[in-house]
Design goal:
Layout: H1 2-21, E1 28-30, E2 35-41, H2 43-46, H3 49-61, E3 63-69, H4 72-80, E4 86-89, H5 92-101, E5 105-120, H6 133-143, E6 147-149, H7 155-167, E7 176-178, H8 183-193, E8 196-200, H9 201-207, E9 214-218, E10 225-232, H10 241-252, H11 254-262, H12 265-268, E11 274-275, H13 276-279
Parallel strand pairs: 2-3, 2-4, 6-7, 6-8
Antiparallel strand pairs: 1-3, 4-10, 5-8, 5-9, 5-10, 5-11
Helix pairs in contact: 6-7
Length: about 280
C-alpha cells in the first residue's frame, strides 16, 4: 500500500511538472511594465510590427507586452486554454466560432496584407498564366512541382487548404512537402530547394533580399487578401485581460493605425501592412 501511495505521489508530481513545462514560451517582451499582458501571434511579431506597437503602447500605459510566437491555429488554442490574454490572427472561420462559443471577445479588424504564390523563376508549372489561386494550385499539382506547405494549422495553412479544396485537389506525394516551419523559414527553404510556396506580402517584402531563386508568379485573387483581427479574453478571465483590451483600443486608434500603415516603409520602400480602413473592403 505504501508503495502504491508513493507511486501515486510521484505520478502527480510528474503531471504537475508537465503542466508547468507546457506554459507558452515568451519569445520577446516590449514595454517597461509593471503591468503586463501576453499576446500570441505569428508574422506581426516575427516581422517586428508587434515590437513597434508594443513599445508605443507600453510607454503610454506603463505596460509590458509579452509575445508568444504562434500561428493563428495555435494562437486560438492558447486563448481558449486561457494561456494568453489576447491574439492577433487571420483565420476568419475559427475566429467566428470562438466568438459564438463565448471564450473570446473584442473582435477587431486591425489591418491586412495579401498572399503571393512564389516559385522558381523558370515557373515549371506555368502558374503565371493562371486566372485564380485555385487554377495556380491545380497547375502545380498537375505538374507535380515541389510545393511547400507549413502544415501547422496556421492562418496560412488554413487558407492553403481552402484553395486546394476549391481546386478539387487532395495534395499528396513527394512533390507536396510539409515544413512545420513559420513563414520566413518556409520561404527560405522553398528558395533553397526551388519549390512553390504561398507567402504573405509582408514576409516577402522583408525577406526578398535573401531570396535569390524565387519570384512572385501569382497574385491578385481577392481570395488571397489576408485580414488580421484581434481577440482577447472576456473581462476578468485572465490577469492581463483588461490591459489586453486597452491595447486593442490603442491598435485601432489613429495613433496605432498610423504605426501599422507606415511600418516597414522606410526600410523596404513600401509599408508591410495596410490599415483597417483599407482592409474593411475585404471583410
Amino acid at each position: 500500500m505504501r508503495r502504491f501511495v508513493s507511486l501515486f505521489v510521484l505520478l502527480s508530481m510528474l503531471a504537475c511538472a508537465t503542466v508547468v513545462q507546457a506554459a507558452p514560451k515568451i519569445s520577446e517582451s516590449y514595454g517597461p511594465g509593471p503591468s503586463e499582458f501576453t499576446l500570441a501571434t505569428g508574422s506581426p511579431g516575427e516581422l517586428g510590427l508587434l515590437k513597434v506597437l508594443g513599445e508605443a503602447f507600453g510607454k503610454k500605459e506603463k505596460a509590458k507586452l509579452n509575445w508568444v510566437k504562434a500561428g493563428s491555429g495555435a494562437s486560438l488554442d492558447l486563448l481558449k486554454a486561457k494561456e494568453v490574454d489576447m491574439i492577433m490572427v487571420h483565420a476568419p472561420k475559427a475566429e467566428k466560432a470562438a466568438l459564438e462559443e463565448g471564450w473570446a471577445t473584442n473582435h477587431s479588424l486591425i489591418g491586412s496584407n495579401e498572399f503571393y504564390i512564389v516559385g522558381p523563376k523558370k515557373d515549371p508549372a506555368k502558374i503565371a498564366k493562371a486566372k485564380s489561386a485555385a487554377e495556380a494550385y491545380a497547375l502545380i499539382a498537375g505538374a507535380q512541382a515541389k510545393f511547400y506547405s507549413r502544415g501547422d494549422n496556421s492562418g496560412t495553412h488554413k487558407k492553403e487548404l481552402a484553395i486546394w479544396k476549391t481546386a478539387e485537389v487532395t495534395p499528396a506525394g513527394d512533390w507536396y512537402i510539409i515544413s512545420k516551419g513559420f513563414m520566413t523559414a518556409t520561404l527560405l527553404r522553398a528558395d533553397a530547394e526551388q519549390g512553390y510556396f504561398m507567402t504573405d506580402s509582408s514576409t516577402w517584402a522583408a525577406a526578398k533580399k535573401d531570396v535569390k531563386g524565387l519570384k512572385i508568379l501569382f497574385r491578385g485573387d481577392k481570395f488571397l487578401i489576408n485580414t488580421y483581427h484581434t481577440l482577447c479574453q472576456p473581462e476578468g478571465a485572465t490577469p492581463g485581460a483588461a490591459m489586453a483590451a486597452k491595447f486593442i483600443t490603442f491598435v485601432g486608434s489613429p495613433a496605432g493605425q498610423k504605426l501599422i500603415r507606415s511600418f516597414g516603409k522606410k526600410e523596404h520602400g513600401a509599408p508591410l501592412y495596410n490599415d483597417a480602413a483599407y482592409a474593411k473592403q475585404y471583410e
